[in-house]
Amino acid sequence: MSDYTPPLRDMQFCLHEMGLTAQAAKLPGLSETNPSLIDAILEESGKFASEVIAPLNKVGDEEGSILENGVVRTPTGFASAYKSFVESGWASLPFSPKHGGQGLPWLVSAATQEMWLGANTSWSLCEILTTGAVELLDEFGSDNQKSLYLEKLISGIWPGTMNLTEPQAGSDLGALRCKATPLGDHYKISGQKIFITYGDHDMAENIIHFVLARTPDSPKGPKGISLFIVPKYLVSPDGNLGERNDLRCLSLEKKLGIHGSPTCVMSYGDEGGAIGFLVGRKNEGLAAMFTMMNNARLNIGISGLAIAERSYQQARDYAKGRSQFGTIINHPDVRRMLMLMKSQIEAMRAVAYDAALALDCAKRYLDESERAQAQARVDLLIPMVKGWCTDLGVEISSLALQVHGGTGFIEVTGIAQHYRDARIAPIYEGTNGIQAIDLVGRKVLRDKGAAMGAFINDANVLLKKARTDGQSQSIAAAAEEALKELTATTDWLVKNAESDQVIALAGATAYLRLFGKVAGGVMHARAAKIAASQPDDCDPKFYTAKLASAQFYADHVLPQTAALSISIRKGHPSVLALDIDQF
């Protein structure tokens, strides 16, 4: 099983040479952001990823987390690695210095998240959830709640969780039954939650649960849901830990992958009611929780990129060493698979990092209208990044297994773990079908295509610049054709689907994939323009590889956009053609 090597050079190209670092540095509060600072952070975080948590990836898969005498025990090394992570300050990178954060761009955090997730997906899921918890509490928490919890969450000393799903509800959060009974300045929480990632574990002294529940007088459906902080151990006004709260892990799920990550069935209030504290306004908990969910969706999208990168590295190294009528990397079909992996990984990285930059803009622009425009871009990109990148994570890890041939199906090679671990991501934080519906219904049709139109206009400007160089002209031309497909399909949806929900729902997944492929093509054209303009004596192998990757994407991936466009505009009647009893 090969080791994980952080792809620092590709990250640096994406961040610096493609101009994302320079854009971030222009934002208020980020003037000191520069390539040297970012490179130092990437190098050190890369060492932590490859030397500390990557070696625990296989350990976590083989041992898994276990529930023993009411205590959830994580795999060997997980807890000590988390302690080192917290002590090194890695958890606090993008957060405000006001509460102990380092004030760095989310753009930098996206790059470090890629390395944590690529090194050890199961271990990293704890940190991802805590990041979302910080965002939620910072926006909706009271001053007292921020004082008690925010600094510990930012540091990672107390990790956070997200408690949404219940056995009878699934993704229908309006069907939640967990109860919150008022009692003085707090509530008594009772009920059961399922699929709670890191709901209990031995990696920290306290765990801060964010729980959706209903008060006795709440209306039915989504509008009757409130949000509560329910700590594992109660916290006194001076910040010290008090008694154990009335909550426990009933069982751990046995899963296809991510064995090291404890997926808990949590019970609240078995002995009278867990003490919880209302976050924000009563009956507005779902809106607050979506702040945490959107943060998680971006990071889960990055997990698709991360596990694809690790799978590619292992497939590439195996192909170079495996001898079968010569080393198999010389076979054209193996080259095809490796290029399909490599080109799409580079596209994903650029698109995901661009989304992180948009998040920085939405948070830091001084002008309210500019912040609103940036937030509209974030809202547009997040469902695409989550859905497109996680689908590709599965596809690319499957291709990596295919490169290994029969040995890939054998657990000892390790590539099967990547495939199994990748499979959860298209389900996490709302299935990718839900992401597609969100993209089409809430992000395109609701504003009649305005945010998508802004994206398309910006893309056209970038592609016009990319066409000025001979070596990148054909790549930019292919991206322009794909962008025309996205433009025409968006116009068609806005015109036809608003009055016919079936059209929107039937073609939503294809539309998300179309958007992702086009966004990746625009980024490849941008990268090709940069690579083509380098002097001949400037790292020629790296830049010619960039051009080759972009050309492959233009030749093999972008042509798929025409077929997706046809299926969206013409294929919707056949989606619902059969009666239920004909299946």
Helical element count?
A: 20
Report the average pLDDT across residues: 95
Q: Can you tell me the CATH class of the largest domain?
A: Mainly Alpha
- Architecture of the largest domain, according to CATH? Up-down Bundle
Structural features, described:
- The protein has helices spanning 8-17, 20-25, 35-53, 56-63, 78-87, 106-119, 121-140, 143-155, 285-321, 332-364, 368-403, 415-422, 432-445, 450-466, 470-496, 501-506, 508-532, 540-557, 560-570, 572-575, and strands at 66-68, 71-73, 160-163, 179-183, 186-197, 208-213, 226-231, 233-235, 241-244, 247-252, 263-268, 274-279.
- The longest helix has 37 residues, at 285-321.
- The protein has three domains: 8-54 and 89-119 and 287-422, Butyryl-CoA Dehydrogenase, subunit A, domain 3, CATH 1.20.140; 160-282, Butyryl-CoA Dehydrogenase, subunit A, domain 2; 433-572, Four Helix Bundle (Hemerythrin (Met), subunit A) (Up-down Bundle).
- Helix 10 runs antiparallel to helix 11 (368-403), helix 11 (368-403) packs antiparallel against helix 12 and helix 11 (368-403) crosses helix 17.
- Strand 4 and strand 5 form a beta hairpin.
- It has 583 residues and is an alpha+beta fold.
- The protein has 20 helices and twelve strands.
- The radius of gyration is 24 Å and the shape is globular.
- The strands form three sheets. Strands 3, 4, 5, 6, 7, 10, 11 and 12 form an eight-stranded mixed sheet that branches.
- The model has no long low-confidence stretch (mean pLDDT 95).
- 53% of the residues are buried.
